[in-house]
Design goal:
Blueprint lengths: L7 H12 L2 H8 L3 H15 L4 E4 L2 E4 L1 H26 L8 E5 L2 H11 L10 E5 L1 H9 L5 E7 L4 H9 L2 E7 L4 E6 L10 E2 H4 L3 E5 L8 H4 L6 E5 L2 H9 L4 E5 L11 E7 L5 E8 L6 H15 L16
Parallel strand pairs: 3-4, 3-5, 8-12, 9-10, 9-11
Antiparallel strand pairs: 1-2, 5-13, 6-13, 7-11, 7-12
Helix pairs in contact: 1-2, 1-4, 2-3, 5-11
């Protein structure tokens, strides 16, 4: 980056783009229109190209300007992350701040941990979302701890992203079961197990973040008959309950997925092992509460026959 560029200018040009007008952007930024125009011209002089074309109707990005704005968005986001660092490393934050992929296991751990002997923190945060969104939320420092699942054959993509954005990733557990969730009225519901070959011949429903190469392809399902992508776990369960789609999900077959409506069948013949990982920003020191929760998740994962632990096992909180 040119050492003469003031990083605040990134926010200026992004506001100009959003407004489509230098004068309106100046009002929103609490600047005079002449000063904002002068700042923009000075930036364009340093860059050696125009970011915007001007007309009586307002401003519009040039081709080079669009490329610059894409980079400016990243730079502005990183500057915001830098401003958030003191809050992220504050030692008096004993709340949990967790983002994870769709996971009944982590959700149950979270709820049973909060239901332990000590009062729960009303500022605890928990978000269940797709893999890409979970990584993005942790990179943006909206949450302090993240949990995700990935196949060994594909996890290098997450490692590369973590290295780029300064995240620590640690293995939590290996050989995570994958199950097919079906309606009890489904023709496959009586089977004791399902092969990936059989799953290739039936309509499937999975999460929108789990695209075929990263998820179904890693399992060995390369030419599925039909795949319906859904955003959330509730939507998946509804679709499975009311149709002939088979849901692909993570978790033990013994889980009671939705009362008496659904059943889970183990999937066999996967080509790659599924593991569970947890992540945090590089250099971030976990609070006592966060360390306790990580220990609790590891313990719950090891409890034979009770994969989600029990409320009475929850460590005391501070």
């Amino acid at each position: 980056m040119n050492p003469g560029i003031n990083t605040q200018l990134f926010e200026y040009v992004l506001e100009i783009e959003r407004c489509g007008s230098i004068s309106r952007a100046a009002q929103n930024l609490y600047l005079s229109q002449p000063n904002l125009s002068a700042s923009l011209k000075g930036l364009e002089a340093l860059l050696g190209y125009q970011i915007f074309t001007r007309s009586s109707a307002g401003v519009a990005p040039t081709g080079k300007g669009r490329a610059f704005l894409d980079s400016a968005r990243i730079m502005a986001a990183e500057m915001e992350n830098i401003r958030k660092i003191p809050a992220q490393f504050s030692t008096d934050q004993n709340n949990l701040s967790i983002v994870c992929v769709y996971s009944p296991f982590i959700l149950n751990c979270f709820m049973s941990f909060r239901g332990g002997s000590a009062p729960c923190n009303p500022k605890d945060l928990f978000k269940e979302t797709g893999l890409d969104h979970a990584m993005a939320d942790l990179i943006a420092k909206k949450y302090r701890i993240g949990f995700f699942y990935d196949f060994e054959s594909r996890v290098h993509k997450r490692w590369e992203l973590a290295e780029k954005y300064y995240l620590d990733i640690s293995l939590l557990s290996s050989n995570i079961p994958i199950v097919a969730v079906v309606s009890k009225e489904h023709p496959l519901a009586r089977l004791k197990e399902l092969s990936v070959e059989k799953l290739s011949t039936t309509p499937l429903v999975t999460y929108e973040d789990f695209k075929e190469d990263d998820w179904l392809g890693a399992m060995g399902i390369r030419t599925p008959r039909e795949v319906l992508y859904i955003f959330d776990r509730g939507g998946m369960m509804e679709i499975v309950s009311h149709g002939y789609h088979v849901g692909i999900h993570i978790g033990p077959p013994g889980l009671n997925w939705a009362g008496d409506q659904l059943t889970a069948i183990p999937i066999v013949g996967q080509e790659s092992r599924l593991n569970q990982y947890w992540m945090k920003p590089v250099g971030y020191r976990l609070s006592y509460t966060e360390e306790s929760f990580i220990r609790y998740v590891k313990k719950a994962d090891l409890l034979a026959g009770t994969p989600y632990g029990a409320p009475g096992d929850s460590p005391a909180r501070t």
